[in-house]
TrEMBL record:
Claim: Amino-acid biosynthesis is one of the keywords in the record: yes
Keywords: Amino-acid biosynthesis, Aromatic amino acid biosynthesis, Isomerase, Tryptophan biosynthesis
UniProt record, GO biological process: L-tryptophan biosynthetic process
Stored PANTHER family: N-(5'-PHOSPHORIBOSYL)ANTHRANILATE ISOMERASE
Catalytic reactions of this protein: N-(5-phospho-beta-D-ribosyl)anthranilate = 1-(2-carboxyphenylamino)-1-deoxy-D-ribulose 5-phosphate
Similarity comment: family membership: Belongs to the TrpF family.
The name this protein goes by in its record: N-(5'-phosphoribosyl)anthranilate isomerase
Class of the enzyme per the UniProt entry, highest EC level: isomerase
Annotated gene: trpF
Lineage top rank: taxon: Bacteria
The keyword Metal-binding appears for this protein: no
Originating species: Sagittula marina
């Protein structure tokens, strides 16, 4: 079994936590972006986070949050990471890390080579990066759209900090995505749902099995 760490994002119900634990996920993501079908309030997230056992890291996904929102979340939700998934600057990433004393995962959206310098800019200040597909113009959500990017953009690249691969990952494509990019951590939201915002335990288990399957040797 390959040592691939899986983050499942957008949990909304207690049974979602159970499904992650059963399947062996490494991170559980709670989505605080109000326009998302996966949105939870801080009170809901607190209940879910309290159910997470040690070894399942709890991540707050926020989009361009102000301090008031982060104060509200961090006051009641026990967290291991803050995931910034908007247009935050490197300075804002550093500020959030310092103010809340939590490691920050910064999402960077890619659609072409022109986006690659952003990775280095954030690598200097974030604890981890989440390399995702850039949301198409006019998309309602800045992430969670189930769209992959061209993995060849990052094939063969190595960075000095941990990072997660995201964007349109499914049980059918995750092995190829890992083989092409060298990712050891993967993140997804939409492909493990039976409807937007409703996680499916069978899909979660199938995804994690596929992500952690030993790679087929290429001759
Ligand atoms: O999932 C959402 O609703 C969402 C909303 C706003 C910002 C980010 C969001 N999701 C993040 O995007 C990745 C990739 O999603 P998908 O697998 O392509 O659907 C997801 O894991 C979240 O980290």
């Amino acid at each position: 079994m390959a040592d691939i760490r899986v983050k499942i994002c957008g949990l909304t119900r207690p049974q979602d936590v159970d499904a992650l634990v059963q399947a062996g996920a490494a991170y559980a993501g709670f989505n605080f972006f109000p326009k998302s079908p996966r949105y939870v309030t801080p009170v809901q997230a607190r209940e879910l986070a309290l159910d997470c056992p040690p070894g399942l890291a709890k991540v707050a996904l926020v989009v361009n949050p102000d301090d008031a929102l982060l104060d509200e979340i961090t006051a009641i939700v026990p967290l291991d990471f803050i995931q910034l998934h908007g247009q935050e600057t490197p300075e804002r990433v550093a500020e959030v890390r310092a103010r809340y004393g939590l490691p920050v995962i910064k999402a960077v959206g890619l659609s072409s080579e022109d986006d690659l310098p952003k990775i280095d800019a954030f690598m200097a200040v974030a604890d981890q990066l989440l390399i995702d597909a850039k949301a198409p113009k006019g998309a309602k959500l800045p992430g969670g759209n189930g769209l992959p990017f061209d993995w060849r953009l990052i094939a063969g690249r190595r960075w000095p900090k941990p990072w997660l691969l995201a964007g349109g990952l499914t049980a059918d494509n995750v092995a190829e995505a890992i083989a092409m990019t060298g990712a050891v951590q993967v993140d997804l939201a939409s492909a493990v749902e039976s409807a937007p915002g409703v996680k499916d335990p069978a899909k979660i288990a199938a995804f994690i099995t596929a992500a952690q399957a030993d790679p087929v040797p290429r001759f």
